[in-house]
Write a structure and sequence with these properties.
The chain is of the alpha/beta class. The chain has two domains: 197 residues, Spore Coat Polysaccharide Biosynthesis Protein SpsA, Chain A (Alpha-Beta Complex); 47 residues. 44% of the residues lie in helices and 16% in strands. α1 links the parallel β1 and β2. The longest helix has 46 residues. The radius of gyration is 22 Å and the shape is elongated. It starts with 6 loop residues before the first strand and ends with a helix.
């Protein structure tokens, strides 16, 4: 049975926003471990795993704010599901630009529904790291001026291969900051560029390319449906308008 005090929360400190992350955990029964993130996110997480004294290790970004009932909800999810890894819901803190494709919200590390697991709200039983002999790949993970990512994807992939139970939860909510910089097209292009570099580093480029093409095709057909429906909407409105004009003329 997991007790509420058996969770360690690791926060990689690379910006001043980590203070808000720490503040959001006040009054919640957990061990908070703040690690210097200037050497890279993966390095900080590896250090956090070493320092954690509890059986569950939770990773939060320094731009995240935990829900007031976060630790309780996370504890209950581990008990209810029997999972060894849980990814919680990540909601945006700040507006997402209307032009930003829904299918690419992963670029902002937000998930309105629990379709994906993101490293900014990830909880792992400590024993999992020993079971699969895992350390976060320090070639991946954010560093200053470097947007390489995917370090948690390697963990999830290896865990899945080892038969470890993974659960995506709509509970255990955190809010992830969508900064002014991340709302810009410049950031979007830069983030996609680094995603390509990430997949080469992970040696997953071909698989990721296939998924990207599939997403693009789905998005195209979705856009086509929207465009077609809008065209018929305008057609119907014009038809009725002209019909009314003709009838009026006849009368």
């Amino acid at each position: 049975m997991i007790k509420k005090s058996k969770i360690s929360v690791v926060i990689a400190r690379s910006r001043n926003s980590y203070v808000q992350t720490v503040e959001s955990l006040k009054g919640q029964a957990c061990e908070v471990i703040v690690v210097d993130g200037t050497k890279g996110l993966s390095y900080a997480r590896n250090e956090g795993v070493k320092k954690a004294n509890n059986e569950i290790i939770c990773f939060l970004d320094d731009g995240a704010v935990a829900h007031p009932n976060y630790i309780n909800d996370l504890t209950e999810e581990f008990i209810r599901t029997g999972a060894e890894i849980i990814g919680g819901l990540v909601l945006p803190l700040g507006e997402i630009p209307l032009w930003f494709p829904f299918e690419m919200h992963a670029m902002l590390a937000v998930s309105p529904v629990s379709r994906e697991i993101y490293g900014c709200n990830l909880a792992v039983r400590k024993e999992v790291f020993k079971k699969i002999n895992f350390r976060f790949n320090e070639r991946l993970g954010r560093k200053k001026g470097n947007l390489a990512s995917g370090e948690e994807s390697e963990l999830l992939s290896l865990a899945k291969e080892a038969g470890i139970k993974i659960h995506r939860s709509n509970k255990a909510i955190v809010y992830h900051r969508v900064t002014d910089e991340r709302r810009t097209y410049r950031y979007f292009v830069r983030r996609v560029f680094w995603e390509g570099r990430t997949q080469i580093l992970r040696e997953k480029f071909i698989k990721h390319l296939f998924l990207g093409v599939a997403t693009m095709v789905i998005s195209f057909f979705r856009w086509l449906i929207y465009a077609t429906s809008f065209a018929f909407y305008i057609y119907g409105a014009l038809y009725q308008f002209l019909l009314a004009k003709i009838n009026k003329t006849k009368n």
